[in-house]
């Protein structure tokens, strides 16, 4: 089982969209996926047509008052499950901060999942902030997957992510955490800016950047309001095909024993297909 934190300290970059739709695509390909909604806004939860209900989130498990296996719910897609979120998680930020093991509460909470190995991948949809919940996600994860919007400040955001990983290493909370991949989102092939941003990010981060880019799509924005992933809402559209392609690339990366290249590696620019 691989635990992947999907995180970016900035909101509106396609973080939840990627967690939901990459998870759905991997489930479509036969993998058993668990999405943990760790964001009190509960956007991943509502994306599956579920309502935020009290005592269904990780709030009690994080505090040691319940176990995570009691909070796992099926979605309409076979092999795709979710731990919902609710507003109580916002209160968990304060309560966890008072605990002596405040950085590793989530890692402790996830231990039952390692025992039975029910899932192939666990995706943690993190809140868009650098608080206790995101810190716990990074301390529990094997790798970080970062969606980055194709905009001017993309590299600036990535520098902060790299520093955050270094801080997690230095704290001793999780030495194994690595930047597993960068997904470029909201790509608009009609603009030079999107092309330039992708090229610049590839220049600095090399093969850590996924070849698949996620296009800007009205359908992708509409799907959550219908409680569906893009694979159900518009299965033949460009966005659905992009997330299927991302899932294939994700599977290929995790099937290979090779480790990702060093962050300083800067290979030649590569062609992009949209």
Account of the protein in words:
The protein has twelve helices and eight strands. Strands 3-4-2-5-1-6-7-8 form an eight-stranded mixed sheet, sandwiched between helices. The chain starts with a strand and ends in a 19-residue tail after the last helix. The radius of gyration is 18 Å and the shape is globular. Helices cover 41% and strands 16% of the residues. It has a single domain (2-255), classed as P-loop containing nucleotide triphosphate hydrolases (Rossmann fold). The protein has 274 residues and is α/β, with parallel strands linked by helices.
List the helices and strands and how they pair.
Layout lengths: L1 E5 L8 H14 L4 E5 L5 H5 L11 H5 L9 E2 L5 E4 L4 H10 L7 H5 L1 H6 L4 E5 L6 H9 L2 E7 L4 H18 L6 E10 L4 H14 L3 E7 L2 H5 L7 H4 L4 H18 L19
Parallel strand pairs: 1-5, 1-6, 2-4, 2-5, 6-7, 7-8
Antiparallel strand pairs: 3-4
Helix pairs in contact: 1-12
Taking the sheet with the most strands, its summary is: 8 strands, mixed
Q: Quickly give the structural class.
A: alpha/beta
SSE ordering: EHEHHEEHHHEHEHEHEHHH
Radius of gyration (CA) equals 18 Å
**Can you say what the CATH homologous superfamily is?**
P-loop containing nucleotide triphosphate hydrolases
Helicity level, as a percent range?
A: 40-55%
Bulk shape: globular
Number of helices: 12
**What share of the residues does DSSP label as strand, in percent?**
15-25%
């Amino acid at each position: 089982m691989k635990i992947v934190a999907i995180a970016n300290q900035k909101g509106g970059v396609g973080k939840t969209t990627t967690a939901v739709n990459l998870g759905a695509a991997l489930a479509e390909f036969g993998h058993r996926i668990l999405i943990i909604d760790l964001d009190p806004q509960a956007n991943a939860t509502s994306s599956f047509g579920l309502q935020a209900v009290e005592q269904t989130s990780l709030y009690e498990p994080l505090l040691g008052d319940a176990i995570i296996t009691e909070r796992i719910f099926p979605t309409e897609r076979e092999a795709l499950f979710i731990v919902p979120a609710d507003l109580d998680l916002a209160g968990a930020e304060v309560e966890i901060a008072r605990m002596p093991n405040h950085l590793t509460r989530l890692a402790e909470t996830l231990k039952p999942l390692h025992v039975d190995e029910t899932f192939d991948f666990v995706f943690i949809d993190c809140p868009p902030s650098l608080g206790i919940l995101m810190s716990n996600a990074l301390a529990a994860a094997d790798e970080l997957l970062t969606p980055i919007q194709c905009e001017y400040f993309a590299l600036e955001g990535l520098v902060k992510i790299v520093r955050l990983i270094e801080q997690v290493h230095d704290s001793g909370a999780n030495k194994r955490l690595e930047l597993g991949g960068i997904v470029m989102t909201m790509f608009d092939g009609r603009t030079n800016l999107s092309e330039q941003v992708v090229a610049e990010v590839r220049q600095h981060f090399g093969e850590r950047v996924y070849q698949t880019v996620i296009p800007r799509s009205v359908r992708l924005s509409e799907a959550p309001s219908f409680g569906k992933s893009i694979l159900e809402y518009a299965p033949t559209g460009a966005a659905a095909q992009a997330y299927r392609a991302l899932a294939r690339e994700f599977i290929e990366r995790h099937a290979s024993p090779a480790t990702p290249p060093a962050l300083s590696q800067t290979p030649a620019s590569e062609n992009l297909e949209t």
